[in-house]
Design goal:
alpha/beta, Rossmann fold, 10-stranded mixed β-sheet, 8 helices, 34% helix, globular, nickel, GTP binding, zinc, metal-binding, nickel cation binding
Length: 315
């Protein structure tokens, strides 16, 4: 995951062109931020110096089936020059700070009865098109807003804004996922309505977003039928972290050899509790079920807000 991929060394832009920019400090183990063109960060957050590593510590080789497994150690990943213990420490540091910020976001959203979802998938799964269809269907019924995550451009945010729904773009630069601090900074710029729906479209990536809590109520994994039914087993962390899987682009099934039941079975092998809705933004199949799922979540968020408010009054 991101302890090894170099994510975080690039420039992050929240809010589109012309906005203030922030960049990750070098060696993003501390998730520190610095203003662009300011002094370099303190040494405290830097990665440890490279050391020699015995490859046997984190590499498992199956000679019979030509399989090299670089995720066999306790860090479940491999990086040249870092031992497994160093990687575990760095990962805990990153995720610990992220989780603390995510808890802040979650409390902020819950206090206002805002139902927030983190939409995750590989690139090209149809996330944005599904969002456009969803927001069009909800127009006039539900107040909504969107946070868009991409490495570059505002294309997706512009598509959302065309529906009349406000959208804030986060460009992650070299980063391969959103994190809780990015989302917290975005929330500070958005005038969200109480008891509204917030949809966060994460960067297209089935690996790193799985580990980073943004403060959402649920992760929703979108799997398109053009990707192959084995994705839940190839990328198990994402489907294990999700509460709902949208099996998308089902209108294309007559043209494919995709096995729907096998895909659902694989997802439930990883996560027995995962819910599944089959959707098509083109034909509208499953959209009513998806909207009903959203409305149930919003109702729960409203009830939780009311109960919390009554509890404060009693205290």
């Amino acid at each position: 995951m991101c302890t090894v991929c170099g994510c975080g060394a690039g420039e992050v832009n929240i809010g589109g062109a012309g906005r203030a920019k922030a960049a990750r400090a070098q060696g993003g183990a501390t998730r520190a931020w610095k203003a662009v063109n300011t002094a370099p960060p303190a040494v405290e957050g830097a990665l440890p110096e490279p050391v020699s590593v015995d490859a046997r510590e984190d590499t498992h080789i199956h000679s019979g089936d030509h399989h090299l497994h670089f995720g066999a150690g306790p860090a479940h990943a491999h990086a040249p020059g870092l031992t497994q213990s160093q990687m575990v420490k760095i990962e805990r540091d990153i995720l610990g700070k992220n989780d603390a910020r995510a808890d802040e976001n979650r409390r902020h959203l819950a206090a206002r009865g805002i139902f927030a979802l983190n939409l995750v998938s590989s690139p090209g799964s149809g996330k944005t098109t599904l969002l456009v269809r969803t927001l069009t269907e909800l127009a006039g019924r539900v107040p909504a807003a969107v946070i868009e995550g991409d490495q570059q451009t505002e294309f997706d945010a512009e598509r959302i804004r065309a529906t009349g729904v406000p959208a804030l773009q986060i460009n992650t630069g070299k980063g391969c996922h959103l994190d809780a601090d990015m989302v917290g900074r975005a929330l500070a710029q958005m005038a969200l309505a109480d008891e509204s729906l917030l949809l966060i479209e994460n960067v297209g990536n089935l690996v790193c977003p799985a580990a980073f809590d943004l403060g959402e109520a649920h992760k929703v994994a979108i799997l398109s039928v053009t990707e192959g039914e084995d994705k839940p087993l190839k990328y198990p962390d994402m489907f294990a972290a999700a509460d709902l899987m949208l099996l998308n682009k089902v209108d294309l099934l007559p043209h494919l050899t995709f096995d729907v039941e096998r895909a659902i079975g694989y997802a439930r092998r990883v996560n027995p509790a995962i819910e599944v809705i089959r959707t098509s933004s083109t034909t509208g199949e499953g959209i009513a079920d998806w909207l009903a799922w959203l409305e149930r979540g919003m109702a729960k968020a409203r009830v939780s807000k009311t109960q919390a408010s009554l509890g404060e009054q009693v205290d």
